[in-house]
Design a protein that fits this description.
Distance between the termini: 35 Å
Number of strands: 12
Largest sheet: 6 strands, parallel
Helix content: 40-55%
Order of helices and strands: EHEHEHHEHEEHEEEHEEHEHH
Strand content: 15-25%
Number of helices: 10
CATH architecture: 3-Layer(aba) Sandwich
CATH superfamily: NAD(P)-binding Rossmann-like Domain
Radius of gyration: 19 Å
Shape: globular
Length: 284
Amino acid sequence: MKHILVTGCNGQLGNEIRELSHNFDTSYSFLFTDKEELDICDSGAVYTFFERHHIAVVVNCAAYTAVDKAESNVALCEQLNYIAPGYLAEAAGNAGATMIQISTDYVFDGIAHRPYSENDATNPITVYGRTKLAGEEAVIRGCPGSMVIRTAWLYSTYGNNFVKTMLRLGKERKELNVIADQIGTPTYARDLASAILTIIKQGIVPGVYHYTNQGACSWYDFACAIHQLGGIRDCKVNAINTEGYPTPAKRPHYSVLDKHKIIETYNLEIPWWLDSLKTCMKHI
């Protein structure tokens, strides 16, 4: 029996992995933890957990993801996004385990005009992006059998996310302003969860990979699609520029990720973002 540790199990991705795990290969056993079951910021607790449960694979879904709050909570962001993944990676490396670290499109500065590949230079412009990049590097150092998967614009039936916010505000307000000059790819967390389980079953090939749904859109396009699919007709959505909605943390203007590497390595079929949104909306 191979034991798979999934940290951050109460987040969007962790919950989707948990749901899909019920139909996964029975030669694997899953251990789902959040802070109450395992404090990943405590190196001693991490090592003890690995020894006790003989972990074969770690999927680290835990992270500090409040991008704007991170600008003023640097220490906590570093602890969760950089130091804690390092502890997990070192424990995994010592145990001969493999690891999947979930990262972000925010490791790029967003000035490109074509999809970012894994070989493109990183240049994060936020505390969140810098700590996630440091976490990638710590994981690669600590665990030779590690894989980093960068993703973007996650949403799910679980937790708080842009889809649920747009549905709620669309019912509460007559008008909404949504940014139209930031381009990326919405990603259904269940699609990523399914890809992660496929990767575990096929065997982790160490390295950095990109995974989002296919295609690209702006936040404005995304919001309009959500309202259309949600049957919201009485709320006008206005397209605005980034300057019209200032935030503590800068956002990349363009952060579409090139997915050729993960598709070719694992023979994955990745759904179009709008098709996956339709699927998710049926369950919200």
